[in-house]
User: Fold this.
Amino acid sequence: MIAAFSVSPAGTEEVGAAVAQAVRLVRESGLPNETNAMFTNVEGEWDEVMALIKSCVLRLAEDSPRISAVIKVDYRPGVTGALVSKVETVERHLAEPPP
Assistant:
């Protein structure tokens, strides 16, 4: 499965340092991941991905009384490597002449 998620402290304007703490946990997890301006994408089995997201929320909750989390899941049992292959498919179509 792939999960696109974001976590941040609620009620504050500066969230970069807190978000970096969550991204650090994701990168240390060993799961395939990528971070962009809005979300961090992570790929793995349901239980390990959800446990990772939970650990990110709990880490931020150590410093903030309220955490906002947004999660989008693409659940496809048995599929691996989709974090890369989905983007490759779009890029392949973009390389074709427009209809």
Remarks:
- The chain has a mean pLDDT of 95.
- Residues 2-95 form a domain with the Alpha-Beta Plaits fold (CATH 3.30.70.930).
- The longest strand covers residues 2-9.
- The chain has three helices and four strands.
